[in-house]
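Table S7 (text form). Paired inputs.
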Amino acid sequence: MLSHYKIITLSHQHTNLRDLAKFVLPELEQTIVHLLQSAKENFKIQELFYVSTCNRVMFLLYGEFNANENTVIPFYRHFLPQLTASDYSILKENVKIFQGTDAISHLFNVASSVDSLVVGERQILSQLREAYEFTRTQGLCGDALRLLMDQAVLTSKEVFSTTRIGEKPVSVASLAVLKLLRYSLRPDARILLIGAGQTNSIVAKILHSNAFTNVHVFNRSLPKAQSIAKLFPNGKASLLSELNEFSQGFDALIACTSSPTPLIDLHVFTSLVQNEKNPKVIIDLAVPNNVTMEVAELKQVHYVEIETLRQVASENMAFREAEVIKATKVIDSNIEKFSRLFKQRKIEKAFSSLPDEIKAIKEKALSEVFKKDLAELDEPTRELIEKMLTYMEKKCVGVPMKAAREIIL
């Protein structure tokens, strides 16, 4: 039954990320598998899978388990016995439970990135598929969740192919590189990356995907700088303290550190460029800025600051959110499709034993019920009767299944 589909979830929509972290299952795969397997037995769940992302914890299940605000407490206690009374209070206030078509709708919205923290980001579908595949290989999922996940993937693909929900970059890192590309830099352009935090780590990956090869990373921690630099064929890493002594020039500089005071002032800039006169692209993603206005206003410098990119990101996010209306129509259509598919699958499973049952009836008729009568007939007649019964056997299977499908459709 569709009502057997349920989702129990905590997400960024209703829970702050610090509290959300308390409800993430242990990282050890075997521990997770054991907990999920025992949960199936304890809570009358036929199929179950779990997914955790940086802003969502979600259980998708199929079974008789009556998920509600009372049963969700022992459900979570099964997985996380260390939770405190305060944690359970947070859980009761913020957990969302979906059942039947509401659960199907929620999954399709999540898979299509309509329910994401960043609307239109594509990573969530990969995370769902990876989590499903892991639990499937562990024997935790069956036909019901397979059918639902297949449709969720198709729904997500249709949303992204028929709407513009994934267009227009909304991350500062993506917009920074996009801005850089507008200056038509060569793949071997000399790029300095100042800082190796999360933002510049993403910037580096995008630079790599755009075939840039010559990136020098400066950071307070050398190992973090090295982990980014190794992405590039001519990547180099240095300590941030060595920046003042760097004299090999650059074509573009992207800065994003937590320094409370600017790192790139006129003295440092002059040291970096030496006597080069070609234009320099400087993208400052730090708050407060890592580059002084004295440098930003130089004629030689094409300067882009984070506030400009944030404004564009905000405009692009508004564009994506407007596409949600179109995406919702696609999702609603796919919920109806799934409802029909689910009913059709139930009929197929109900009829799965029919061929063997009809064949057994035929064999009994030939070997027992009409055995004496057939013995009195000649060989050609007996063969003809067997052919007729075999023909009827196939038709008796096909006709009711066809009629059942036509009723659904």
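Next pair, protein 2 of 2.
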Amino acid sequence: MKKSLAIIPARGGSQRIPNKNIKIFNGKPLIYYPIIQAIQSGIFDKIIVDTDSLEIAKVAIRYGAEVPFLRPEHLATSQAKIGDVIEFLLRKLKEEHKYQPHIITLLQTTSPLRELEDINACYELISKPKIKSVCTITETHPRFYQLNKNSQLILVNKETDKTTNTTEMQKGYILNGCMVYMIKTNVFLQTKKFVDEHTVGVITPKWRSVDLDHPEDWVLAEFLHKHKDKIDERLKRF
């Protein structure tokens, strides 16, 4: 079996939700969820939490992840790019631990509604020789807008302006809170990006696509997580 690495980024200085990565979410620290899912999937030979915080590192190790070293200060700011963070981690693993995976998987702590089936579906695809990268996506309204500096609406996909009937529009999709990103290591090292024009999308349900950026996201996600079995059961009736 080719080497497969799960990386769980967990910076210590979360701003909108203080100590987010180890804040208790339905009875467990938030970081527990991606760690336990990575372990249960059985597809990773290494599960690493990448953090600059000793406190987060201790919690991560307690639940079964590795923290071989702490992230350096210059990569622990809110401006640091995830591509640079992962490149540094890979280089350090290769130089100091003689380890280089064939596949990298990024599991964000901020997606607590991710399920094992999402990870497995992505892995099944990325294991195919011709597929370079995979990520989870969710369906969105095909007509969506951005705001310019004057708060005026700018239609992103102008093709949708030709009709008001959504059934006639091409479906739209968005990345859903970084639930799962998988990429071949050699592909990542060329661009330091997880998504490009070659990336294959795995569609996941809208209701599980909450990304914990703001306190209201947290409250909503806790409710959904607590009642997810009931939600699944109700949805099957439609």
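The mean pLDDT is 92.
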